[in-house]
Amino acid sequence: MLHLGFTALLALVLGAGLGAAFPQDALKKSCSLSKYQFLVPHELKAVQKMKDQFEDIMLLSDRKCNTRLFHRKWSTAELSVPDRVMLVEAELDLATTMLGLPAATPRFAETRQRPLAFLTQVREDLRGCMAMEAPSHQPSRKLRHWLQKLQAAKKTETTGCLEASAILHLFQVLNDLRCAALREQCT
């Protein structure tokens, strides 16, 4: 009986000691965006379905938008890896914010739930990577200019135009994500 108690106590002490030597957070926290190099087909289909449905809704509206937020004179491949991650994080922040707004129709509210959940998870993964790998990274001049353009658009454009821009360019955002995940030269 005493032997079993001592064994249990020894196991508890060793377990606590090993836990301190190898913190659980250190084992869990690794920045691996490689899972986003090739997106799962059902996620892409959900995004495409949402985009198609949104385009149908837009045909019925008379939105006049001037924002050219996603039209850039440079490509994502020209940016450093930390800049790419920062770019995609900002793009996803806009997209998830817009997808989180009340939907025009109940059907569209249902259609966008899966893409919203997926994009929210990606954004959280990117934030974790930035916090771990480049917490004090300063964006390049190209990216800084684009981030300023994004902030200005958030202040001057209508919510409808920002929503349209974010949704209609989701595949560009996903391509930027793939480029950020490659961690090397991308096209």
Descriptive account of the structure:
This protein has 187 residues and is mainly α. It has a domain at 42-63 and 88-185: Growth Hormone, Chain: A (Up-down Bundle). It is built from nine helices and no strands. The termini are far apart. This is IFNL3 protein.
Q: Layout of helices and strands, plus pairs?
A:
Blueprint: H1 2-21, H2 24-28, H3 41-60, H4 81-99, H5 106-111, H6 113-133, H7 141-156, H8 159-168, H9 170-182
**Beta content:** under 5%
Based on DSSP secondary structure assignment, what is the total number of beta strands?
A: 0
CATH architecture of the domain at 42-63 and 88-185: Up-down Bundle
What's the overall geometry?
globular
**Average pLDDT, to the nearest integer?**
80
CATH superfamily of the domain at 42-63 and 88-185: Interferon lambda
CATH topology of the domain at 42-63 and 88-185: Growth Hormone, Chain: A
Largest sheet: none
Alpha-carbon Rg, integer = 22 Å
Q: Name the CATH class of the domain at 42-63 and 88-185.
A: Mainly Alpha
Roughly how much helix do the residues carry, as a percent range? 55-70%
What series of H and E elements makes up the topology? Answer: HHHHHHHHH
Low-confidence stretches: 1-29
Q: Would you tell me the structural class of the helices and strands?
A: mainly alpha
Number of helices: 9
N-C termini distance: 68 Å
Family: Belongs to the lambda interferon family.
Subcellular location: Secreted
Main location: secreted
Keywords: Antiviral defense, Cytokine, Secreted, Signal
